Amino acid sequence: NDDYFGGKTYEQDPVSSTQAHVIYSFGRGIWAALHGTYDYGGRTTIGGTENLDLQRNSRIGATFSSALTRRQAIRVSVSRGAYTTVGADFTAIGVSYNFAWAR
After folding, report:
1. pLDDT, tens digit (0-9, with 9 covering 90-100), for 70-95
2. Residue 57: burial class (beta carbons within 10 Å; 0-12, 13-18, 19+)
3. Alpha-carbon distance 61 to 3, whole Å?
4. pLDDT of 45 above 70
5. Are 98 and 72 in contact (CB under 8 A)?
6. The pairing of beta strand 49-50 with beta strand 44-46
7. How far, CA to CA in Å, does 6 sit from each of 30, 47, 58, 81, 91?
8. Does residue 13 contact residue 43 with C-beta atoms inside 8 Å?
């Protein structure tokens, strides 16, 4: 943004993200997974002055899924902020029902 508040230039560095997933199948449509994510970057600069907003955030999570029938499954997941410098630290819990139209 070349015309930020007061005619200054506003810039933001890119945010890099790395993810890792480990999945284990118990057979018969039942599986579990562990997840990890690390984000780094996003520092902003206004008029050539760096702000103290470098982001270094990591999340961990787990998912469990079980088939109910050949076309239906239920999934439970949880995600937790392990380390947060900028942004909200949260815990998310989800339950979902999956239906496959074609098999």
Report:
1. 899 999 999 998 787 766 778 999 99
2. buried
3. 41
4. yes
5. yes
6. antiparallel
7. 58, 10, 35, 36, 39
8. yes
Helix (H, G, I), strand (E, B) or coil at 85: coil
Kindly report the pTM of this predicted structure. 0.73
Amino acid in position 66: S
Q: What are phi and psi of 79, to 5 degrees?
A: -135, 140
d(CA 102, CA 69): 13
Give the DSSP H/E element, type plus range, for residue 21.
strand 15-27
Chain segment 47-59, per-residue pLDDT in tens: 889 998 888 899 9
